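Entry 14. Two folds queued back to back today. First construct below, sequence then structure tokens.
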Amino acid sequence: MQVANVKGEKRSAGGRHANERLRRRGMLPAVIYGHGEAPQSVAVSRHDFEIALHALQHVIALEVDGTKQQYLVKDVQYDHLHKDPIHIDLMRVDANERVRISVALELKGTPSGAALGGQITQLLSDLHIECPLIAIPETLRVDVAHLGLNQSVHVRELTLPEGVKALHSPEELICICRLPKAAVETPVAAAGEGAAAEPEVIGRVAKDKADEAAQ
């Protein structure tokens, strides 16, 4: 498990204006809690923290006043555009403590059903898991190369690392390979058009025969 190093500093619990001043300095307000201790307000380097976010690292080593300690990134609040982080919740944990966290699911491979026009629809993008802190995976890969048309992958089919437990129903769908909706509807529409056209042809033939008899 990789751990990102993040610089921080103590801060007084402040309101909206104090937090805005922090952000202008390139810092993010954060709260540390857990293990029965009183919550602690800190500010962390936005630059350092965003590097950890982009690397999908769930644990950071936060250095405050020369003391470094590891924390679990429990929650990140974003701005209204869901673009920039504005507040962080950090949780005190021990190295061998079991924690609950969400990990991204990454689909790998091209499904065999793609040769028939199939496309992958991902229904579950993150997996809620329980595992030791030191065993948190950065991502979980899901092989979809074997999927034919209308075939799917369920949570029960995942191969999880040792010590990792999924907190989902085993039957929950992760992804499915199927034809796009437009491709399914087109043949039905075409059949309907053909059925509507047929009476016109029959009526025209009958009228032609009647005209011939009159002559």
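Second construct, same run, same settings:
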Amino acid sequence: MKVETTPLENRELRVVVEATPEETENARRNAALKLGKKVRVPGFRPGKAPYPILLKHLDPIALQEETIETFLDKVYPEILEQENIEPFAQGRLESILNINPLTLEIHIPLQPLVEIGDYHAIRIPYEPPVVTDEEVDEALERLRKQNAVIEPVERSIQEGDIVYIDLIGYRIENGEITSQSVLEEHDIPIQVLAEGKTAWEYPFQGFSKELLGKQANDHFGIDFSFPEDTPSLTFKGMNVHFDVTIKQVKGRVLPELNDEFAQSVGEYTSLEELRSSVRSMLEAQAQAEYQEEYDTKVIQELVNCSDIEYPLVLVENERKAYIKELQQRLNQLNIDLDLYKKIKGLSEEQFEEEVNKNVEYRVKSSLALLEIAKKENIRFDPLKVTQETQTVMQDLVERSKDSRIPKQLLDSIAIRISERNMYDQVLNGAIEKLRQIAKGEENNIEDQESNSEVNPPETETSGFEGMNKSEIEAVSMPEESITENKSDSEQ
């Protein structure tokens, strides 16, 4: 066997393997004998026909394919060992260069190559926002609106009202309103959106604003032309005249902002106690949002100062995971991908560009962070991993106890959850370390650790050092996604 290797772009290796005539014939013979077990040869029991006779009864194309597969099954592990190749994923057959002797071109994805720059020099000012009295007042006002009482009112319709209407739609053809009814609904509630507020409206976007200034018992008409790409299949490309009758108007009556209100919304004794709780909640929320933005900036600086190469199969896998996650989030909102693109005003090309940008960021940031974890000896806590995995599995078993999930499937799920927990711990540890560096806190923390009399216990399974290669890969690259951390630039 003769092997030639040539490095390609995107961490891929071109391997040309040429079999000797003897190896070619052995692979062909073994392939024929394997196929012969399923072929009937007159005068012989299945699998018992001599090789020369068997060849006359086999499909040449099937024999060629089986010969190549048989040869690759044997020599692929030998090639990896002989050429000291560490593949990231299974190689693929790129082309058949010759049949006799068998000569094949294989492309093998290699492990990502990550060269981290001087990440200790990263500095970004850490300036968390301060919650103002005005923001607290606005939050309390929102709380009042959430606890408003909806009551009938005798006045003109205002923003925020809920209006009950009868709605009949007639098709318009050649500029004339026909008698063909395409919609008839009675006593349907319509919320009148405030200026600047956007939400999906029925029967068309902007309908509620047509109600402003009207009163109960008013009757009027609205003409609307639906575009071809409207999400509503009923009205697609249709011109419709809507007859609207206002049946009832209900407005929101806000409660007084006092101690009694505070007691009604929670376990508070006074308005001041409620105000203090609201401020604490806003501060925690602002801190979490700011830290997410800060971490994203820090990770981007890490990526910018790093040289990262990876095989395209890694991008393909991450893209599948990204689309799957997006679809799961949209399914919870009863939205499909096509409607999502329309809502965001994205063409197919723009959507692909958005996906590619986010996938590239996720791949690069996760690889860079995992390299930080190795350099900084950031380890996962095996006890915590076990506890978190057990908690999730107990909940899963409890929720699906009537389904009788096979034990083998439960074991497989537990392994994947455990790998995800290990991965998340390591990645989050790297983010925390990077955050400390960017804030300029690293030296202070190291001084505190060096002065401490108690050192953390070390175990063989507590980090990368005590793991074999397959375990490291399991932590580094969970099957469902590279990373689901704070860095999605779509958000």
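Quick look at the second one. The domain at 149-253 is CATH 3.10.50.40 (Chitinase A; domain 3). The first helix runs from residue 21 to 36.
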